[in-house]
Structure formats: structure tokens, C-alpha cells
# Entry
Amino acid sequence: MLVHISEEAAREAHGIDLAKRASQTVQSRGQDMASWVNRIIGAARLDVATYEEVKADPKATVQAITVVLLSAAASGTGSIRAGALYVYTAFGMTLAAWVAWAFLTWLIGTKFLAEAETKAAVGPLVRTTGFAASPGILSALGWIPILGPVINILAWLWMLAATVVAVRQALNYKNTGRAVLVSAIAGVVLFATYFLYMAVIIMRGGL
# Structure
């Protein structure tokens, strides 16, 4: 009889322990989601503390990449009036442009225009510039007639400003001017490469 009661007590204790663990897991995931959303808002507000936080948190890498994917998906959604092909094209181009731009920024910012305190680590730059893409989520409204193009331009300018802050914090620049210069050079190289690529395709009769 005592053995039976002991076994039941053990099962109940085990069940309570599992319930506690499940509750803690749900609570932890809820906190992570809240933290992610707060970081998105902070990045969009150009909050320096937010960029410093994600720069120092290796776990924020997945969060940053998710923000980039959301921004790219928003760009695709904003092109929905033009057809499904444009949705996929906008998504792919936005994602590819971010990857290429992040690489160029890292290369120029750490190899050619580095300061004494600049570190060559890729992770911090990926995290900060990833969250800097958060204003791009607004481009999901790009399908709205008349207002759509205006929203896209505002989102692009907002994202550009956030990117400058992200670069400055990730590369430990003392002044914003150098971050602007690095971002501008990376942008020029990226667009020049794209137009050169398109010119080659056109000359070959690809379009």
C-alpha cells in the first residue's frame, strides 16, 4: 500500500515538474518575442542602446536575419499589384542587395576606412545592419495607390538612416561622418555593379 502511494506521489511530482518546465519554456519564448519586438522598435527609432545591445548579443543574429527576411517579404508584398513574378523578384533582389551591401560595408569599413578601435568581426555588423532593415517592413504598404511610392521612399530613407547608425556602432566609429562615407561607398559600388550587370544582359539581348 505504501509503495503504491509512493509511486503515485512520484508520478504526481514528475507531472508537476513537467508542467513547470513547459510553463517556463512558454514564458521564455514570450520574453524572447517581446525582446525581439522591442529591439525592432528601438532600431527603427535609431536608438543607440538598442544597436549596442544587439551588437554584443550573439543570439541576436537569428533575430537580425529574421528582420531582413521580413523586410524583403514586405518589399515583395508591396509589389503585389504588379503580379506574382514581381513579388518574388522584389523579395529576391531585396535580400540579395542586403547581403551584398553588408559584405561591401564590412570590407570597406574594416579594411580601408577602419579606425583604431574598429574590429573585423562580421557578426556584430550582421546583427546591427539586420535590425537596421526594420523600417523596410513599411514597404509592405507599397501596393497602396498613390501613397505606395511615397511610403517606399520614406521607408528607404528611414532604413538608410538606421543603417548609418548600425555601421557606426558595429565598427566602433567615433563619428557619424565615417559611417556615412562607408555606407555611401558600399551603395555606389553595389548600384554600379548592378547597372553594369544589367547593361551586359541588355547588350547580349537578354531583355
Observations:
- The helical segments are 2-44, 48-56, 60-78, 84-112, 122-132, 147-170, 176-203.
- Residues 9 and 105 are 61 Å apart (CA to CA).
- The chain has one domain: 2-203.
- Confidence is low (pLDDT under 50) at residues 22-28.
